[in-house]
Design goal:
By secondary structure, the chain is α+β, with helices and mostly antiparallel strands. It has 2 domains: 217 residues, Enterococcus faecalis V583 domain (Enterococcus faecalis V583 fold); 169 residues, v583 fold (Alpha-Beta Complex), CATH 3.90.1700. Helices cover 38% and strands 20% of the residues. A 5-stranded mixed β-sheet has the order 4-6-5-1-7. 55% of the residues are buried.
Length: 415
């Protein structure tokens, strides 16, 4: 099989995948290999000694949430002594925004690829909303109380709701949101409203307690990022469907842990290719500057890997008010991504480009040959744990990861 044929197979599997949101469950019960002393995190593998502030804070918060430690200092000491284990979300069929920390007791979305040849699943934790949140490294009592409410009230309500449905078609939701001004990564206003529209009648039917109904609907409706986490899991299900095609040079994961940027490639097994993460450049909230920014962090670049996010900026001109630039820049960003991808998506199209499919299937050969790295829309985290989001902007992966992958490909396939 030649490279182009292998890539066509991989990208076809990615586009054919039909991710359905089918449930909410406890992480230890559904995530493969999950156990009580394991903490999943965003990005490629990293140990405690190298973790940046936001990721360390999220680890501490998760340990307090799980009752593994009684104080922040005790949690940090346990982590330093190796009393908890760490692993990338991606290595357990999961994804998480920013720090991405997921612990055994947390409720997670369950997304299934409903195609006959599919069968793979993906998982993501629940979105906390804005402000001081675990994913940015905050672990105050306010943060922990919110997480407990999400686990004890929100999660079970969503679980009962989805159990009464045949599942929510996330591929269709993403496609519609792209026609309503979202790009699916940093701008999710339309998608979150579509999500609320879909689940509201089910919640009204499944949840008998009127107070809980109101709390859940208000929490989901007030959070413009509520759909981001299930969309990320949907993108993970799509890209995992494309993974493992012998001879393919298509990227199936891009992820960052706040220190390193890593990619995985369909035809190169489970190996990570890593290099130091870049610092995003963009617009900052009042009182913060570029000097406050942590290097890029989070699994949310799975959206770009699947053909949306920064690859679909042409359909979301309002995104530039959040990440910087002009509507013309957004259009040009998408046009540039066609240069390094293998296909145009069959289901994700953009009105501003006469409903042309989004650029899909990053080819490491094209990235290296043309010197064009993928564009990623991202939130910007403060370097210190718990400060939170300080802005939003654009970032590109280091070219070194694609160069490493191409060399490894040449060695493996004796080119």
């Amino acid at each position: 099989m030649d490279i182009n044929t292998a890539n066509a197979i991989a990208v076809e599997r990615m586009m054919a995948a039909r991710p359905m949101l089918t449930g909410v469950a406890t992480a230890r019960e559904v995530i493969p290999g999950m156990r009580d002393n394991l903490l999943l995190h965003a990005g490629p593998p990293i140990d405690w000694a190298r973790m940046p502030g936001p990721l360390r804070g999220a680890v501490v918060g998760a340990m307090l949430f799980e009752g593994l430690a009684r104080s922040g200092d005790e949690a940090a000491g346990m982590a330093e002594q190796g009393e908890v284990d760490f692993a990338p979300c991606h290595e357990h069929a999961a994804v998480g925004p920013m720090a991405g920390v997921t612990s055994a007791s947390m409720k997670v979305y369950v997304v299934e690829n409903a195609t006959p040849s599919g069968g793979n699943r993906a998982y993501s934790n629940l979105n906390e909303g804005y402000g001081k949140v675990l994913r940015y490294g905050a672990y105050s009592e306010e943060v922990l109380q919110r997480l407990r409410w999400m686990n004890d009230v929100l999660g079970p309500a969503l679980a009962h709701t989805l159990a009464q449905s045949s599942g929510l078609d996330l591929r269709a939701l993403i496609a519609e949101a792209l026609h309503m001004g979202d790009e699916g990564h940093n701008r999710n206003k339309a998608g979150s409203l579509l999500y609320l529209k879909a689940i509201a009648p089910l919640i009204a039917s499944a949840v008998r307690d009127n107070t809980v109904q109101a709390e859940v609907l208000r929490f989901v409706g007030d959070n413009a990022l509520s759909v981001l986490n299930p969309v990320m899991a949907a993108c993970k299900a799509m890209t995992d469907a494309a993974h493992g095609v012998e001879g393919s040079t298509i990227v199936t994961a891009m992820a960052r842990n706040g220190a390193d940027f890593g990619i995985r490639v369909s035809g190169l097994g489970e190996r990570w290719f890593t290099a130091p993460a870049e610092v995003p450049v963009g617009l900052f909230f009042s009182g913060f500057t570029q000097a406050d920014a942590n290097p890029d962090i989070g699994d949310s670049a799975i959206t770009e890997t699947a053909g949306i996010g920064g690859f679909a900026m042409a359909t979301a001109p309002a995104i530039v008010s959040f990440v910087g630039g002009t509507p013309k820049d957004a259009l040009n960003a998408t046009l540039e991504m066609y240069e390094i991808t293998a296909a145009e998506h069959k289901h994700f199209s953009m009105p501003a480009l006469d409903f042309r499919g989004t650029p899909t299937g990053i080819d490491i050969r094209k990235v290296v040959e043309l010197g064009i790295a993928p564009r990623i829309n991202t939130g910007i985290a403060h370097r210190q744990a718990g400060v939170g989001q300080v802005g939003a902007g654009l970032v590109r992966p280091p070219m070194a990861v694609f160069e490493q992958a191409l060399v490894a490909y040449a060695e493996r396939y004796s080119l």
